[in-house]
Amino acid sequence: MKTAGILLAIVVTLALQTTLSRFIMGGMVGIDLVLVVVVYAALTSGAVTGLLSGAAAGLAQDALASGVIGIGGLAKTVVGFLAGIVGTQLIVVQPIPRFVVFFGATVLHALIFMGLYVLLDVRQFGTPYGAVAGQALGNAVIGVVAFQLVELLPGAVARRRAQKARIRR
Amino acid sequence: MALLDIRYRAGSLFVAVVVGQIILISAQVSSRRGVPILEAVTFGAFAEVQRAIFTGVSGVRRGWDGYVALRRAKDENESLRRQLAAAQIDLQRQRALADRSRGFERLLELRDQSTLTTVAAEIIAAGAMPDFRTVTIDKGANDGVKRDMAVIAPAGVVGRVVIPSRRAAKVQLLIDRNAAAGAIVERSRAQGVVTGGGDERLRMEFVSEAADIVVGDVIMTSGNDGIFPKGFVIGHVETVEKNGPAYKRILVKPDVDFRALEEVLVVIAPASGRDAAGSTE
Fold it and tell me: Which chain B residues are closer than 8 Å to A21 by Cβ?
């Protein structure tokens, strides 16, 4: 059930990244929503889920992106695995530690992804420091907001229901 | 002990997945001929998902824009946009024709290269990764779209088809890091190669230090690459700097607004005889 949920989240995020982002953000955003889902899954479910969801999501993205199939998969596998270890070994429940994990995961992903492309002489990236920093910042903000929403939303709904019940009485 | 087992299993799994993917990468890098089958199949299947989502979203959007929000203004605007696009395409054709008529050699070329046959396509999705500047269009092999066909817009060159599936195609934008096009400066006829940089600007490379290029010059396709038809606008020169003793470093601002692209034309046939009229579906 959990696996199906994560797979569904990856497919929905891929669709969001490729389709709806055009309508919402102009289609050229430097944010990797799929990476956010992989890190989220790793932090909440552990290293095995992180590496498997990273591999699946990365391979799907590679296949859709005209690049070498496996490079994005490998980068997301490593990031998912390490994020999962961080999630199980350290206490990552506050927004700032989560921000740091998402930010670091994006930088590591960019390092592996771009490094492999440059190493294999398939693609050059020039000096992408600004772009990577921007993407890391965007991913971190979205990741932290997603965590807050998932954690706060059920509580807020329950409080609202309780408030309504009190008013009726 | 149980914790150790989980760690051991996770570690083994991690190694297996990483090794599997390294083998996958190695296989592709050592034999990169054409489009990998996995890529083509995945793209073809996912293009249908993208098409379905796009159809749903654009239906709601059109419903809102066309009927609820701005019924009359929307119709009028669309009509004007079509007219403007047709006029811009015409202008580009005229520019291409004028360019070709400059010399006897070009007059000879005119016999074979005077018009374009294009098919109109709508962009239904953006790239799956921020590092790859690609879009998906709603026309594919069924509409005559093939690999390496040029894609243009009324404002200028957009890119080339990299993967055509049955009912959709992936287009590599000219601003992608791996994209390039043969280019010529309209005013001075200096030639070079325009390449993407992954951002919103293009670089014109291999232009001699002695070449006459100034800020504001129009950069057009030279037709030397065999993909893009000759005489189509790429952009305007933004900066010109010295790049070593032999070459200039030129930054080009593309005329096409890649963030706002919605419709494009795929060049199905680059030329169709001297007297044939260009057809735009």
Answer: 126
Q: What is the pLDDT of residues A78-99, one digit of tens each?
A: 999 999 999 988 888 889 999 9
Q: Where are the domains of chain B?
A: 114-269
Query: Can you give the pLDDT at residue B127?
Result: 79
The amino acid at A119:
L
Hey, of A16, A17, A22, A51, which one would you mutate to test binding to chain B, going by the most B CBs within 10 A of its CB? A22
| Domain B114-269: top CATH class | mainly beta
pTM over 0.90: no
Q: Give the DSSP letter of residue A28.
A: -
B172 with A21: Cβ contact below 8 A = no
Looking at residue A60, its amino acid is A
3-state secondary structure B180-249: EEEEEECCCCCEEEEEECCCCCEEEECCECCCCCCCCCEEEECCCCCCCCCCCEEEEEEEEEEECCCEEE
The predicted-structure confidence for B137-168, as pLDDT tens digits, reads as follows 989 988 999 988 999 888 889 999 998 888 89
CA–centroid distance for B78 within its chain? 23
